[in-house]
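The step that takes the researchers longest sounds almost clerical: writing a folded protein down as plain text. The outcome of that step, for a single protein, is printed below.
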Amino acid sequence: MLKLFRPRADDRTTTTGPAPAEMHGRAAEIADPAGLAWDVLWEALKTEAPDDDSFVLTQELGLDEERSIRTGFERSLPATEFSGTRHGRAVALRIGIVPSARGKAVNEVEVETSVAPFRIHEQDGRLVADPGAMPEVDELLGELVPDPRVWRDLVVEGGQDGIRARRPVTAHSQGYVYDLWLVERLVDRLGA
């Protein structure tokens, strides 16, 4: 399995709870992913049956297209984008992009939809919306347990082009799984 999909010891949020297979396709039932291991959430986020002809690791998530991308700031290897349709919306997972000349690689999840502008950031393990966010954003964040391992260094921005969650690659090697869950919950909560 690729390094990007293997957990580091500090990325496991719990060793108790349901087995991944028990949660297959049940992401909508998860009120808060804190406390769930990334592989349990990965299984819960699956929306598609396995395709034996596909070599795309995220195919069962509905992200069945894979391509190398460059933003112009990558120094060596290009980033990888997995994209497709989930719940009728265009979704992209980008692994290892370098969005600025500062040279810090990030992972990001983006759902194409239009929402009123808002910004969320992690503060001491809790997700906090900047002033002016819609009440629905604050309500959802208030329902989540603070967890510095799960939400470390996460920034989420919403606006006319969609909702994008972004964090440094080094923050949590499987953080994008939690980010996909969160972005989809925000889309649902905002009715977008």
Q: What stands out?
A: The helical segments are 38-45, 135-142, 148-151, 175-190. Confidence is low (pLDDT under 50) at residues 1-15. The beta strands are 65-69, 79-86, 89-97, 106-111, 118-123, 126-129, 155-159, 162-168. The chain has four helices and eight strands.
